[in-house]
Design a protein that fits this description.
single chain, two-stranded antiparallel ribbon, PP0621-like, Deaminase
Length: about 80
C-alpha cells in the first residue's frame, strides 16, 4: 500500500510538471508563429512589375523599383 501511494504521488507530480511545461511550450510556439506571419507591405516595381517588400524597394521620383538598375533605367 505504501508503494502504491508513493507511485501515485510521483505520477501526479510528473503529470503536473509535464502539463505545465507543454502549456509554456505552446504559448512560446504561438508567439513565434504570430511574429513570423506578420504581413509585409508589398510594392510593384515600376519597370518590371515584380512585387517586393516595401523595405527592400528602391524609391524613385516616379515610383518604387526592385533594383538600382531598374531605378536608373526608369528615372533617366
Amino acid at each position: 500500500m505504501k508503494y502504491l501511494l508513493v507511485f501515485a504521488v510521483v505520477f501526479l507530480v510528473a503529470w503536473r510538471w509535464r502539463s505545465a511545461r507543454t502549456g509554456q511550450q505552446l504559448k512560446k510556439a504561438q508567439k513565434k508563429a504570430a511574429a513570423q506571419t506578420a504581413p509585409m507591405d508589398m510594392l510593384a516595381c515600376g519597370q518590371c512589375g515584380l512585387h517586393i517588400p516595401a523595405q527592400d524597394a528602391f524609391a524613385g521620383t516616379r515610383g518604387s523599383y526592385c533594383s538600382a538598375a531598374h531605378l536608373k533605367i526608369a528615372e533617366h
